Amino acid sequence: MMKKRIAKILMCFGITVVLTACGSNGVALEKRGSLDDNNSFEKNSNSENEIEFSEENSDQQQETSYGLEEDRLGDDYTLVNEKNSNTVGNSSMNIINGGEIAYQDGWYYYNNGKGIYKAREDGSEREQVIGETGDSLNVVGDWMYYRNNDGIRKAKIDGSVVWSINSEGYELNVVDGWIYFYVVDSGLYKMKTDETEKELLVSGWAMPNINVDDGEWIYYFYMNGNPNGIYKVKKDGTQNTLLYKLEQFELKKMALKEGKLYFVKPYKGILRLNCDNAQVDYIYAVNEEIYEYLDEEKFSLLGNDIFFDSDNGSRNEKYKINLTDETKTKLNSDQIYDYFLNDTYIKRVDNNGNVKFELYNTDGAEIGMLE
After folding, report:
1. Residue 260 forms part of a structural domain
2. Which of these, 41, 55, 201, 298, has the minimum number of CB atoms within 10 Å of its CB?
3. Rounded mean pLDDT of the chain?
4. Please, which pLDDT band fits residue 83 given cuts at 50, 70 and 90?
């Protein structure tokens, strides 16, 4: 009798554990390695040109808790949001333009100079997620990834956990469970979002303008003089291929859309490069008779439109080109934007360090503001 009673108690206890683990909010559990199980990596103190694995966790890679432990179910599990979670943390163009704002499931996450905040489109339900700032912001599931002076960072979107992933890295692209980034004096890297399987894909000095497609390729600009140009490499690090040689030392920006790369040659125009066959054509050619010049810094591909500045020394004009019909439209200064998320144009406004983001629909009407 006593044995039966004990069995019943154990059975009830088991059921309680299962129900507790499943939770009442419909989330699933995902197994993950603990920090102690995974190798961390950091810059080698003996060389300025290498990044290597460290067998021990660095001092920076410490988990910081803000007291919201109900989301943690032990060191081996993390909650996985089963709502409309991103698989791509942000667009490559947004990241190249600074990456200070990202979007997921009705929420905007943004750096306003005082921390990383989140809010709805109309600015409601605004709250600070973490007190530190960052750029190259990507949001995927329950995590956001970003970089600042402390390197590549990772935080829960409720602000409960923050830790360092790597001591440096630029232009983070989080795609399908991988983080792609470059280190100026080392090369192009990838690693999993759980901080495992870090791999150097291409070695060299500076690999800016990273564009990661939804297939098997990464596109980047190589500026080490061997030769300078636009390259593509498979995500496993193979088939590193020169697509287009550039004479100038640096390419400011390039943008990927539907198998084509768009970029500016200041005294020539806006070029379109086919990523499959490396064929190039001009989507816009400058007027050499009036000494027209295009500002590379002002070039952006946002949504289905290319935005650019044209200058000839005596006048500066702003235009956009629609990629569907290639029509060119003259713009005023209020129609220039920095980011494109959730079918929305976004303008970054900095007033003496007070940063806000103005949101516009594709017709140019303001629909919200994030502060």
Report:
1. no
2. 55
3. 82
4. low
pLDDT per residue as tens digits for the range 229-264: 999 999 999 999 999 998 766 789 999 999 999 999
In a domain, 363, yes or no: no
Number of domains in the chain: 1
CATH number at residue 92: 2.120.10
pLDDT at 73 exceeding the cut of 60: no
Query: HEC profile for the chain?
Result: CHHHHHHHHHHHHHHHHHHHHHCCCCCEEEECCCCCCCCEEEECCCCCCCEEEECCCCCCCCCEECCCHHHECCCCEEEECCCCCCCECCCHHHHHCCCCEEEECCEEEEECCCCEEEECCCCCCCEEEECCCCEEEEEECCEEEEEECCEEEEEECCCCEEEEEECCCEEEEEECCEEEEEECCCEEEEEECCCCCCEEEEECCCCCCCEECCCCEEEEEECCCCCCEEEEEECCCCCCEEEEECCCCCCCCEEEECCEEEEEECCCEEEEEECCCCCEEEEEECCHHHCCEECHHHCEEECCEEEEEEECCCCEEEEEEECCCCCEEEECHHHCCCEEECCEEEEEEEECCEEEEEEECCCCCEEEEEC
Let me know if residue 157 belongs to a domain: yes
Q: What percent of the chain has pLDDT over 90?
A: 70
Domain that holds residue 97: 30-251
